[in-house]
Design brief:
Blueprint (H helix, E strand, L loop, with lengths): L3 E14 L4 E16 L4 E5 L6 H9 L6 E6 L2 E2 L3 H6 L2 H4 E4 L3 H4 L6 H12 L4 H14 L16 H13 L5 E5 L7 H18 L2 E6 L2 H4 L5 E6 L2 E7 H6 L4 H8 L9 H17 L1 H4 L10 E2 L5 E2 L3 H11 L1
Parallel strand pairs: 3-8, 3-9, 6-7, 7-8
Antiparallel strand pairs: 1-2, 1-4, 4-5, 9-10, 10-12, 11-12
This protein binds adenosine-5'-triphosphate (ATP).
Adenosine-5'-triphosphate binds next to strand 2 and helix 1.
Amino acid sequence: MSLIEIKDLNIHYPIRSGFFNRITDYVYAVDGINFDIEEGETYGLIGESGSGKSTTGKAIVGLEKVTSGQILYNGQDVTNRHERKKIKYNKDVQMIFQDSMSSLNPRKRIEDIIAEPIRNFESMTDTEERDRVKELLDIVGMPSDSIYKYPHEFSGGQRQRIGVARAVATHPKLIVADEPVSALDLSVQAQVLNFMKQIQKEFNISYLFISHDLGVVKHMCRNLAIMHRGRLVEVGTREDIYNNPQHIYTKRLLAAIPKVNPSGREADKAHRREVEREFQDHQDKWYDKDGKVFPLQQITATHSVALPPDEVTQIKSEVG
Ligand SMILES: Nc1ncnc2c1ncn2[C@@H]1O[C@H](COP(=O)(O)OP(=O)(O)OP(=O)(O)O)[C@@H](O)[C@H]1O
């Protein structure tokens, strides 16, 4: 049994218009997706802006209402609020946001920000609570006198560490990390990713790591799902996605990773142009007649791709 199982998840937002404010259509933000997250693993959910990643992450922590489908936690249905309450799911599943400046209340001191989730789920004396907050700050490498300060007194990287301290305060089993390093400089990104890994090892936490950048998550994720137009276009292990991508959308995301070696930049640009041309010239290969991504089909035990059936048959014969 997996820690989290997402089963045929749909989140559709109504579009209303006209004098009577009638529903005229829907935004299919999440359109029938399935994936599982194992205990202690980092699962990557990757896609461009608007693909439905954040909506999925918010639904898992209970911040977004599910239209249909199921979210299972250790086999128990937690799709609805009252089910989540029964098993302390809200304590076990936490979230880290991209924008630490707006996700940390600017009027509250760090002590209160980190203590807030503890107050929701545990009863402690003031001294016990303060000791716990200092311990959490120590875990994320921040000095204990940070408790007296406010979010604006820290750098972006430090604020993200504070966000992680708050997320781990309740001893969670899963953290949904929504673009946790996108707003940070490259060197600070590496620091934050490293201590997220350390904390994961120490406390056996699973992450759902949401990102638009396949470069950032390369050394974090064991398994990845590539999301586009509310659906999954490719799912596989790190090796499947980085070494043997099959969908043009995955190839585009990989081509967008900047290369470190300057001598390869021209070849890199040419490769990007080639991938883009293939994408533009063969739209019928990537979408069905309604412009939707095809259903996912398995090509190996670990690797699935959303392509027309004849394409999938051909890929299978090549890899088999
Ligand atoms: N409350 C809402 N009402 C209507 N449409 C929404 C709502 N929230 C999100 N959407 C739409 O759902 C789609 C998916 O949004 P979502 O934020 O999940 O994408 P994303 O992949 O996380 O992108 P980003 O990284 O830019 O947040 C988008 O088209 C967005 O405009």
